[in-house]
Amino acid sequence: MIPVMDVFRLALLNRTLNRIYCSLDAEGEKSPRGLETMQRLTNFLISANSDPLRILTCRALANSAMHQWGRLMLINDVNTTVKYVAAQLNSAKHALQLAATTALANWALILLRHTESGKVAELGPREDALRAIIQAIENVVSFGDFNQIALIRLLQAIVTLMWGDVAVIQLAKGRDIIGIMNRIKDAVVDESGKAIARDITEMAYSL
């Protein structure tokens, strides 16, 4: 399965293959495969007992965001899949942390753009995504063992989900995002990461 998933996650970078495997719209007599693709990837995250398979699954989800069909597939049912991707943050494997946070950062940007364009009328998906991320990391006492790039992408995902919306910021503040940011800021080395953590903290304090 791992060689197949490795090929599949690369295939999703191709425009034509992305449309074939991620589209939610039927073409002629062919049924859309997007929902099936999402279900299979989600099932891998739930049931896989192999870190390499979970890593490749997260990379496939991240790569699907390269084209419009994959982006629409990702936001079709945010609550279900984001929860299982965020759960990978509890892994000690740096490659899995990085793959998961890359997928989460892509999700956050897609949701923000759809909200700004008016294509997503409700805030539910952004709140669901942020809630899933916070639930996965709120009990982490120290982020010192986290991959540094993964920490940056995690911060990017959080700040993007919170950006410009009081309801989402209130949710984050109510789940002690300030305390979480203080712990991440202590662990992240890059100054740009510390700056993002400060921005998130300031957003929470602004309410």
TrEMBL record:
Entries under Gene3D superfamilies matching the protein: Leucine-rich Repeat Variant (1.25.10.10)
Q: Which residues form the PUL domain?
A: 1-203
Official protein name in the record: PUL domain-containing protein
